[in-house]
Amino acid sequence: MEAGDVKFINTDGMVFIGPGSEWLWAALTGLVLAGTAIAIYRQLRVQQLQIHENTKLLRSQAHYNALLLGQRPWEMLIQNEALASVMNVAYATPEALSADDWSRSSAFMFMQFNAWEYFYYQYRDGSIPKELWVGADATFKALVATKPGYARFWLESQASFDEPFRSDTTREFAKKSVPADAASD
User: Fold this and answer.
1) DSSP states of the chain
2) Separation of alpha carbons 137 and 184, rounded Å
3) Spatial distance between the Cα atoms of 122 and 66, rounded to a whole number of angstroms
4) Burial class of residue 145 in the structure, from the number of CB atoms within 10 Å of its CB (0-12 exposed, 13-18 middle, 19+ buried)
5) For residue 167, with 0-12 CB atoms within 10 Å meaning exposed, 13-18 middle and 19 or more buried, which class applies?
6) Bond preceding residue 73 cis, omega within 30 of 0
7) 31 compared with 14, residue with greater pLDDT
8) What is the C-alpha radius of gyration for the chain, rounded to an integer number of angstroms?
9) Is the pTM of this model over 0.85?
10) Which residues are within 8 A (CB) of 90 and not within 5 positions of it... i.e. 6 or more apart?
11) C-alpha to C-alpha distance for 185 and 68, rounded to whole angstroms
């Protein structure tokens, strides 16, 4: 070998198979392992993005469902003048209603409380935005505080709702100046 002749890779004595080739197979194993780790990392990132997008879609659907459920009773009042008249009496003086009208009013209030319960649990699960929950909850609490008919409804129907919604709603009625059982007298 001449003085100016330098080898970039010395292949003298290089063995690919058999004794002395362990370094080659260890290097190849390392490369395969690194490639596998990169592939697994990329797959996990893709799955993370998919989960994030699916979560956004599910939250959007829960928001939409909550809006539909919460607005439907109000739409019924707008569309049905007779129901609106009955409900106005039911809100203020439920004892003035006939048994049939109270049954109709109670069913209407049941739909409203179902909506409130849906909002309640969806918010607890993080499925609807806080802003939607705050507005809906404030609306229902205002109805509880200002409409004696709701107190009668709750007294008669609270067993239809499970915990913790039932206890939280009962506490809202307890905050009222008119106790729930006084409204049904």
Assistant:
1) --TT---SS--TT--SSSTT-HHHHHHHHHHHHHHHHHHHHHHHHHHHHHHHHHHHHHHHHHHHHHHHHHHHHHHHHHH-HHHHHHHHHHHH-GGGS-HHHHHHHHHHHHHHHHHHHHHHHHHHTT-S-HHHHHHHHHHHHHHHHH-HHHHHHHHHHGGGS-TTHHHHHHHHHHHSSS-HHHHT-
2) 24
3) 8
4) middle
5) exposed
6) no
7) 31
8) 34
9) no
10) 97, 101, 102, 105, 108, 109, 149
11) 34
What is the per-residue burial (b if ≥16 Cβ within 10 Å, else e) of 84-94?
eebbebbbeeb
pLDDT in tens, 30-64: 999 999 999 999 999 999 999 888 888 888 888 88
> Over the range 2-27, which residues count as b (16 or more CB within 10 Å of their CB) and which as e?
eeeeeeeeeeeeeeeeeeeeeeeeee
Q: Which amino acid is at 5?
A: D
Domain residue extents for the chain:
59-183
pLDDT digits (tens, 9 = 90+) for 84-110: 999 999 999 999 999 999 999 999 999
